[in-house]
Amino acid sequence: MTTDVYKMWVAGAHCEGRAEQIPIEDPSTGEIFAYCHAASAQDVDEAVQQAHAVFKAGSWSRAPRHVRAHVLDKIADLLTANLPRLVDLEVRQTGRAIREMKAQVPTLVKWFKYYASLIRVEERPVLPTMGKLHNWVDRKPLGVVAQITPFNHPLLIAVKKIAPALAAGNSIVLKPSELTPLSSIDLGKIFQEAGIPDGVFNVLPGDGALTGKCLVSHPLVKKVDVTGGTPAGRAIGAIAGGNLAHFTAELGGKAPLIVFGEANIEAAVNGIAFGSFIASGQTCVAATRIIVDNSILSQVVENLKDMAESIERHMGSPKNVDSMMGPLVSAKQLLNVTMLVDDAVMAGIHAVSGGKRLMSKSRLDGTDLSHGYYYPPTVLVDGPDTKIVETKIWKQEAFGPVITVVGFDTEEQAITLANDCDFGLGAAIWTEDISQALRVSDQIEAGICWINTHHRNDPSSPWGGIKSSGVGSENGIDAYHSYTTAKSTILNYASAEERIAGDNWFREGAGDVRYG
């Protein structure tokens, strides 16, 4: 079997890295199918210096907005043309089921089209200043921006950062996860063909401790945008703060999903399954804490059990279009999930379904699941003498296909349970009572709250958390503004005579003088 070797993308060309190459593993088989060059400290410095030089030269940073918009639209067209290859690569490096990637990857074009449209129609405000002054405000690009992306949605999360950064005119140095860097590297040629000047977009694979730290601490980096775990986000934020760099972070989550007695149970269970088990539960907004009205708790648990078992029966090769869920991304991720579930079960929590790594052959297509990192959809409920809310898995992020289900009697109890967490990224409410939905959603501590749906994501809709889930948000005009700085230009249009009379601050004699 041929093992491909991927290189870094710097200054419009594939380049060899000076750090040790990274083996890229297929999570469904455990096989190494590619190697990727990684950036050393010297590579990082050279890439940032080149990106800074291109920014100062102005070929992109000072290009007319309609030129930038046209290039973004061209990127969308080229992504569409390259979808089959990109889908296959995402499946291979993440282990995500191809049915998921065929649904997700085509949506990437929306971000480029949205930000192309935004900069075409962006208005420059003129502020209501005192006197004969016009004060208008322009948005100026920051310079070189560093973007750190995770393994779970390699292309989607990268694009959510790249599109507004390019629209604003910045130069980008992207460090993808060392587990899934390949599709991000492939963006380089696509962007070049679309018309992005060489050096404006760069991809430096590598681990966080070396490549990532060197990148975010570089003095020429004017903004750091990271998606990842909360501990890493805190550490990166401290470094960025030391350099007075702008900072955006989308970090961990432990999303609550409340099901009220007024909900349609079938719709709610479908929503829970999607919110919990898509991407094998490896999403920051995964619905992991299911909070259900006691009047319907037993029925919801039974339906979830049936759904989980059905998904497990349909787990096979990620390349199989009939496979419903793939493996976890790595042995490390599998171990984390296993330890948290085992801890809960040993404490007396009951696993209604799942709870053990899959080691048999797939009932769907005969794939030997023991070769990959397959973990089944798992539903945990209170044991006879143990409450889930007293275990680690209630508050710690497993990042796997595991949900905890607890009951409640009143709205107040449901809200308290939902907010019983250090994270505050996503949340969801299921009910047919719209008054109840609005009343409760207003009290949920989360940056995103869905009602009768989950994991909806649109380029126009802000996506960010509170508490330990991050700082700032992706998407929408806020993300574009976060990649710019406001520049005020103030013009005095009074006549020369008026200016001489009113602005001679140090004239002799008494009389009123202005200030401001």
Automatic annotation (TrEMBL):
Pfam families hit by this protein: Aldedh
InterPro entries linked to this entry: Ald_DH/histidinol_DH, Ald_DH_C, Ald_DH_CS_CYS, Ald_DH_CS_GLU, Ald_DH_N, Aldehyde_DH_dom
GO molecular function: aldehyde dehydrogenase (NAD+) activity
Reaction(s) this enzyme catalyzes, per UniProt: an aldehyde + NAD(+) + H2O = a carboxylate + NADH + 2 H(+)
Domain of life: Eukaryota
EC class of the enzyme, as a word: oxidoreductase
Keyword Oxidoreductase: yes
EC number: 1.2.1.3
Record keyword Transmembrane helix present: no
Active site (UniProt): 250
CDD domains in the record: ALDH_DhaS
Domain Aldehyde dehydrogenase: 18-488
Keyword terms, alphabetized: Oxidoreductase
Family recorded in the similarity comment: Belongs to the aldehyde dehydrogenase family.
Protein name: aldehyde dehydrogenase (NAD(+))
